[in-house]
């Protein structure tokens, strides 16, 4: 089995609604993503002969996904009062609302399936919330 790994990162803020601790407050991270794709057979013709996939294309696809979350406040849908949310939007803050709790574990799953939908055979996605804390999702 062959595999390659690409890396991307984005900066954003989030909070964990219902969490008993510091993470219940809005705080930021530099999220680091590592995506590993695999194949049993390398491509046997064309520009990508001898490759799993083109690093450049995989990196481009991952970067496009990561950019959606860069420099914003990520919130789980329906965890912030509508009035608070409206004030933030009116003041020009970029809010990204997602249907899951914004944990490293759930982001690993999200990025796994998002890359998979682009036609890659994903082996695993690792999401670092901090340089020392990582969550992994494998298919």
Automatic annotation (TrEMBL):
SUPFAM superfamilies, per this entry? Answer: Tetrahydrobiopterin biosynthesis enzymes-like
Does this UniProt record's set of keywords contain Transcription regulation?
A: no
What does the record give as the reaction this protein catalyses?
A: 7,8-dihydroneopterin 3'-triphosphate + H2O = 6-carboxy-5,6,7,8-tetrahydropterin + triphosphate + acetaldehyde + 2 H(+)
Pathway-wise, it operates in: Purine metabolism; 7-cyano-7-deazaguanine biosynthesis
Report if keyword Zinc is assigned: yes
In this chain, Zn(2+) is annotated as bound at 14, 27, 29
Say which family it is in.
Answer: Belongs to the PTPS family. QueD subfamily.
Name assigned to this protein: 6-carboxy-5,6,7,8-tetrahydropterin synthase
């Amino acid at each position: 089995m062959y595999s390659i790994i690409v890396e991307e990162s984005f900066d954003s803020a989030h909070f964990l609604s219902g969490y008993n601790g510091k993470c219940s407050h809005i705080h930021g991270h530099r999220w680091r993503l590592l995506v590993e794709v695999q194949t049993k057979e390398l491509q046997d013709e064309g520009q990508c002969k001898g490759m799993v996939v083109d690093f450049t294309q995989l990196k481009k696809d991952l970067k496009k996904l990561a950019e959606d979350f860069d420099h914003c406040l990520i919130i789980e849908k329906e965890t912030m009062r509508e009035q608070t949310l409206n004030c933030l939007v009116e003041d020009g803050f970029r809010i990204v609302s997602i249907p899951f709790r914004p944990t490293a574990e759930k982001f690993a799953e999200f990025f796994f399936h998002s890359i998979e939908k682009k036609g890659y055979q994903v082996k695993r996605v690792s999401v670092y919330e901090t340089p020392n804390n990582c969550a992994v999702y494998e298919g």
